Amino acid sequence: MRVIQVGLALVGAVIGAGFASGREVMRFFAQYGVWGYAGAALAAAAMGVLALRVMGLAARCGARSFGGLSRHLLGRFGGMAGGLLFVALLSVTGAAMLSGAGELAAIVLPIGPAYAVGYYGMLLCALLVAWRGMGGLAACGGVLVPLCCCLYVPLILLPAAGEGVALAPVAHWQAIPMALSYAALNIALAAGLLCESGPGLSGSGHRRAALTGGAVLGGLLLLAIITLERGPGELRTAPLPMVALAAKLGKPGFYLSAAVLCLAMLSTLATVLRGLFMQMPEGWSGPIRWMLPCACCFLLGLVGFDSLVGTVYPALGWCAAALIVALCVQPLRFQQKSAILHNETRE
Length: 347
Hints:
Blueprint: H1 2-14, H2 17-21, H3 23-28, H4 34-61, H5 66-108, H6 114-131, H7 134-157, H8 175-197, H9 203-229, H10 241-246, H11 250-279, H12 286-301, H13 305-328, H14 332-346
Helix pairs in contact: 1-7, 1-8, 1-9, 1-11, 4-8, 4-9, 4-13, 5-6, 5-8, 5-11, 5-12, 5-13, 6-7, 6-11, 7-9, 7-11, 8-11, 8-13, 11-12
């Protein structure tokens, strides 16, 4: 049961607003045509491998947070830098989900304070999910998977557009490095829950959880690519490609896509809050460890969705992805030495 929970929690963390809206799927995969399918398969495999590696390292070092894992593998100062980068990435991501939820509510709800309802309501719901731990995160992933299928399958059955999505004016082989970067970016975001769950599972548990998450994500990626490729060429430049395509189903399609997007924001924000909670010093009281992440995301969210997603988030995301890769390829000898030192300290 724990293995399935971790796998579904990983799915919920990866299916964020960018995935649910179709923007990430279009940018990293669909615009490359046939190469996009190869990229999706590679991305799913890479996410499984990286998730397995992070859980294994966390279990070996006894680290239950990404900051703790960074300290064991990179030393005091490297670990401090890695922890700060991770906190910055999570905080900005959480803020983007909050502001995005406010904007979505302003579109869907026919009331005056719709933005505030979406903003405050999303924060409260995400806090409740994060507080329930891995079970809450897994529940979000478990609901998101069938909900996405309910959206994608009807869209795939619709008649395809005449011209279809125009391919990118770049070499199609670039889908391969884009797929690898997509995997690293998303594992960086989910690193907190992977570190938390790693020490509680055996080696076989790590493999089954990584396989579950990677397989489900790969299947959803393929469905999303097929869906977007059957749409008109202007989807490639649409801010919310999947939502625009779902408009073909009328109001039911619009509200279904809005529900998928809302739940995706919730699962990502809950993952963020849980990761930030685990980063807080264990000596602090529980209410403070929860209050600080919420306050940080709340205040940053006031900056606005476009500013966060357009400038700050990409830079932090690429740096965090590079850090994940650096940690995963650390020489085994150094990892073993760190584990020995950690065990000696605990004794």
